[in-house]
Amino acid sequence: FPSHDIFGSEDLWFNFEFLVHCKSAYCINKIGNYYRKFNVGSLTKNHNNTLYVRLKALHNEMQRLIENLGLSEDAIFRLNNRRVISFVNVSLAACGKRNPQGKIEKYKEVRKLVREFQEYIKTFPIGFLRLHWMIFFLLIRFRMSLAVFLYLQVIRKFVNR
């Protein structure tokens, strides 16, 4: 495993690299793992506001490997979808209690993230999402940073972060 100081999600990198070397795979329609959301020792809870930097490094390394292996455009499409999904955790962290900045600085951080994720959100399929997530990702797609920030404040009320 690479150091979690670099990627923050060494299990995702391991799974990705492992699957690249598989000759075949079988997909079952069953969820086989569960995350403990309230584990205070979890890396996702103790990233010290470096979550975005770590995920960006992970995604860039995954893209490099995809390109080096000559994988299809579908692999890049799926990676970009993963980037969009990571926006949820990154933006929640930016608005979280562990971020010592004031509300205006937190809003500016969310606005910056909305701009940075524009490249990936364009092709993200939202039709399968529940309504509240569909609204959230549409707000991002239409660059409505203030609405995204306010929406995150509502989400934070329901997420223990």
How would you sum up this structure, described in words?
- 60% of the residues lie in helices and 0% in strands.
- By secondary structure, the chain is mostly helical.
- The longest helix is centred in the middle third of the chain and has 23 residues.
- It is globular.
Could you name the key traits of this structure?
0% strand, single chain, 161 residues, 7 helices, 60% helix, mainly alpha
Q: Helix tally? A: 7
User: Which value, in Å, is the CA radius of gyration?
Assistant: 16 Å
The computed structural class is mainly alpha
Overall shape: it is globular
**Distance N to C terminus:** 26 Å
How many beta-strand elements?
A: 0
Proportion in helices: 55-70%
Point out poorly predicted stretches. none
Oligomer: single chain
Largest sheet, in brief, is: none
SSE pattern, N- to C-terminal = HHHHHHH
Q: Report the mean per-residue pLDDT as an integer.
A: 84
Strand content: under 5%
